[in-house]
Every structure is written in structure tokens, then in C-alpha cells.
What we know:
This protein has helices at 51-58, 65-74, 107-152, and strands at residues 12-19, 22-29, 34-38, 44-48, 79-81, 90-95, 98-104. It is an alpha+beta fold and 176 residues long. This is DUF1828 domain-containing protein.
Amino acid sequence: xxxxxxxxxxxxxxxQQLINGAKWCVFWLTAEDRLGITDGKTRLYExxxxxxxxxxxxxxxxxxxxxxxxxxxxxxxxxxxxxPDENAETVEIKYIRNGVTLQKxxxxxxxxxxxxxxxxxxxxxxxxxxKLMDIETERQVAALEIQNxxxxxxxxxxxxxxxxxxxxxxxxxxxx
Length: 176
């Protein structure tokens, strides 16, 4: 039994990347149109990108933008140019030939923004987990129905093989 999952756009798309020996998270907040990078502790760089700016960054038309944007995050396609100095005010993110500069977030709001990212990711994981549990429950119910039908011999039709048998050959026929 195949179940088709149609999911809404993700609120948070992210991937982890090693930069200068440290783990960083490149993220995209869909609701805010915000691209950012954080070390998850004290450093956070963000910028807001509208559709036109994202089209310029990726080099694709608006109709192809959602698929390309998803592909970039799936394949970890951004190149991050990060100054090892912890007081650096900007970070450059490049995709092929084009790039965008991210500004360092205010230190007072950094921890709140990182906490918001964590909350969003946990909420999103909970939604996915619930969908997977629902699918598993549906699969188990269908298996039990088939098992009960086999035991009783009636009720729910058991899927049968639908392979057609081959007809006799209709080619040339010789009389002996």
C-alpha cells in the first residue's frame, strides 16, 4: 500500500557544514525569507532575501527557483567564506558565480534567534514524526484486515495476481 505524502513547504531548511574545523549550520527560514549561518553558540549571521535576490543568487527563473533552492540545500551547494576572527562583521555565501553578504546579528538577539531556530526545527521534526507514525498505523491496519480476511475466508478481497495467460500462437499453420 503506497501512501502519497504531500507536505507543506518547510518552515526551516538547513544543513550542517564544517568550516575552519568547526561545525556551522546554514539555514533558510521560509516565513521570514531569511538566509543565515550560525555556529549554534554565539555567532549568527543573517540577511533577508526576496525572490528577485534569490533568483540573482541562483541564476534561475522564478518558476525554477523553489526546486533549485531545495536542491542547493539538499546537496549543500553554498560555499561559505568565513573569517576565522570571531569579531568579523560579515560572512560571504556564494553559489557558483554569485554571492550574498550576511551581516552579524546583534549579540543581544543572537541567543534568542538561535533558540528560535531550535524551536522551529523541533516543531518540524515532531510534524514529520507524527506523519510517519500515521503512515505506519495505516499500514498495520491494512495488514490486519488482510490477515483477518484470510482467516475467515470471506470479507475483504485478497489481492489476486492479475497476470494474463498467453493465447495460443496465431501464426502460419500447415496441414500435414
